[in-house]
Amino acid sequence: MSHTVLQILLAAIVVLPLVGAVAALLPAPPGLKGKDPDQAVLRHGVTVTGAVLALSVALAAGFDHDHPARMQATTDISWIPALGVRIHLGVDGISLPLLVLTALLTFLCALYSYSKMPSGPSPKAFVALLLVLESGTLATFAVLDLMLFFLAFEMVLIPMYFLIARWGGEGRERAAWRFILYTLLGSVVMLLGLLLIGIKGGTFDMVALATDNGSGLGHTTQVIAVLAIGIGLAVKAPMWPLHSWLPDAHTAAPTAGSVLLAGVLLKMGTYGFVRIVLPIAPEGAHAFAPYLAAFAAVGIVYGSLVCLALARSGGKGDLKRLIAYSSVGHMGFVLLGIATLTPTGINGALFANIAHGLITGLLFFLVGAIKDRYGTSDLDELSGLTGAALYGRAPRLGGLLAFGAVASLGLPGLAGFWGEMLAMFGSFRPADGLSRPAFLTFMALAGLGTLLTAAYLLVVVRRVCMGGDGDGDGVTPATAPGPSGALADVRPYEFAAWTPLVALTVLAGLWPAALLGLTDPAVQQLLGGGN
Amino acid sequence: MGSSLVQSVDWLAIAPPTITAVVALGILVADLFLPEGRKPLLGWIAVTGLILAGLSLLPLLDGDRSTFCLTGTTGGGACSYTADHFTLVIQLLVLGGALLTALLSFSDIADSELPAGEFWFLLLSSAAGAALLPASRDLATLVVALEVASLPAFALVGLRRGDSRSSEAALKFFLSSVTATAVTLLGASFVYAATGTLHLTRIADGLTHVDPRLAVLAQAGVALTLVGFAFKTAAVPFHFWVPDTYAGAPLPVAAYLSVIGKAVGFTGLILVTVVAFPSYADVWAPALAVLAALTMTAGNVAALRQRSDRERSAVRLLAWSSVGQAGYLLVPIAAAGYADDASRAIGSTVAYALMYAAVNLGAFAVAALVARTSPANRIDDYRGLYARRPLAALALGFFLLCLAGLPPGVIGLFAKVTVFSAAVDAGLGWLAVVMAVNVVIALYYYLRWTAVLFRGAGTEAERVPLRTSRSLTAAIALAAVTGVVLSGAPQLVLRFASQALL
Question: Residue ranges of the NADH:quinone oxidoreductase/Mrp antiporter transmembrane domain (chain A) (predicted)?
Fold first, then answer.
């Protein structure tokens, strides 16, 4: 495909959701009114996100897979000369998978919401906010200018706030405030770091800054900049101990919000580490890598211990909350991989990013479906004395949950395995100058984390999927169950929304080279300073 | 000798303030002859006058005119009136702000039966003073302009006859303002004593070699001169008059004070610090930095504590938030004291002020719209505004997010970025961090208000349709279009942050 076509594709991917968001607020044109206005606007959401997905797949197809390290589909226009801000777009092997993942998950969320609109105000605003959110996240992965990155980073805040505060569950207001105040505080501090780099480095262009690998920045500048930027990204990622906004936000958010929050928004943080911190301020990254790794390792263990506490009987654990805490652990692996500063570790981190997006997205969909059926996601209420017996009541749903759980615990052959293994492998032999014993300790901690992860996920599977004979030891399902307590099994729209995630999880597990082949050359180049 | 005393006046250069002043006088006279029913005509005369004054900026765009210059060999070419780029930008801000204020005044004058003739005369007089101020290049003109801008404002605040709150607000404003001006005059006289001149550029020269015996006098003069201007910007500790004055004044007057009043203050501050006292940067720059930090913190914390069910809480919130915004405006001025290139840092203040003027007046315009139906003007009265008037609600949401500096308010975001970058550039890292925390605090109350707009209307009273007026709609539309255009093309105002203005 020619360069111009790719250019237009990428620009359209970022702009189309915005146009769609404005269009969602306008009355539907004649011929597209549908059954009623609500249905029309939800369909509009599916159409626009579908179109964006199609465009991003086309972009991936047209992407030159022989040179994934090269920025492709680049556009570079001056926007605000006064600040030196340019509209610089482009994708390489690092951002392309994330771009496609975002488009896919948003489409699936729109599809899911079309049939199962969360309760709350009119769907019009829901669709518009979803589209703005999509545009912001896509832009984060597509822009190559520090200021534009910041703009895109901030763009997701307001839509996500309203999605949680308006369409969320219990405690939504508080959770939404926590989410936005935490992330904003982090990102304003990040802005200071970005400005420092821009002022000292003389440009905001990520490619230019990455090419000279921070040679224009002094050691002190790099350390301060990495500290400031790192805080912003670590809040978003989230890194223990800055994660405390996340469980509340995930628990309160509607299903589509949780899926996007876990699947895409968290990735903005780790992507920032790889795209900005490592290549632009390598000395600063080197200075902070041991601390980042330590926090990551603690996060892995902490996340799984909390999950274990939530999963045990009588722990009053909420399933959504549990998946949210498991994200803290999984993102810990990603951060650990990045902190090793080796190609192996970073490739693992990028792989784990994608895997976590697929698997946790699927898990949040499944938990949302369980919550719809039972009216609760409280593990104790669900499982009662003997277990919720999902295998018996809704075999397909139970099977999918078990699949998601084993994928999440990192069973070889599924997506969750490779990333975490590579991250640990990277910390077995960290980059030169980093303390090997320290990283070996972190690796051991991470290994312990995988064991604990397996433990709590299996406990969840046992309590939710297995259990008594389904004679009502647990709660009575909310959606008028059959005589033997049977539940509505996977419905067609749920099937449509979940199949792609399952298929990709298996594909990425069996054929990791497809993804690693894209990221590896790009990572080598970033670490090597554009050579 | 005789010929050198006669000065030729460049009438074109002084046209913007002159036209405003002449139209103001014209309105005062016309008021005497117009029958009661025709009084609204005065408003349109005022609007036309402001547009004309704005158009008179066009021939000056090359920005190198000055007049009322000293002649002869001793003068050194110092001028009292200069129409450089800085002057033009501020005059544009003042006249544009006055125009928006005028548009949102029409309905208020009719509703609360304010005396139209006096109102328009006072508004234009004050605007004339505010337009003169950025062009002033000597201390006498500066103080005169400051007073021309302020005196009519006192009367405007107390214009609601028989309203004790309005009179009290005016008295508070008057007493504290006059004290500040007196202090400034004292400072100016000290500076004059130490340097023997009133012209800013010559003061700058004179201060570099002050007689050692007069050094303390000069320092005291510098500090005292700044006080009066700090008062106008409502910087801490001179901010206490703001909330009561805003809440007591007619709403358009509060809007006017929050934008033009501030513009007057920081323009004077910039001229005095950067042009007249650059050699004392080590004195005023740290002081301004501390002042900026205190001001933004005090304003934002107080705004945070506003209860949404209190009477006039909307205006009070805007008043306190304007104190917080004044803190941001001070940051680049403080940075100018540290930077090698002072005029660049100043440009950040100017760019920020332009953004702030447009969106803050827009927010006040929507507040005026809501106040027509709910005179108490509590934040709770905005509940469900989206259901009643979607466009007004979207506009207010946009203005508030611009003030908060979050997308979709792109211009607000980038204006904050320029301020941040001025601070980081000058090495004022701590101030940047304080401001970062303040931005988060401010987001909380702006977003809380924004969220109220989109809630479902609760009670019957909240479903009453709003009474609109064409002039109010025009004001909101003008501000919204400005904000949206600037968000798409921030370069339009941000370019001032990258060029030498002074």
Answer: 145-429
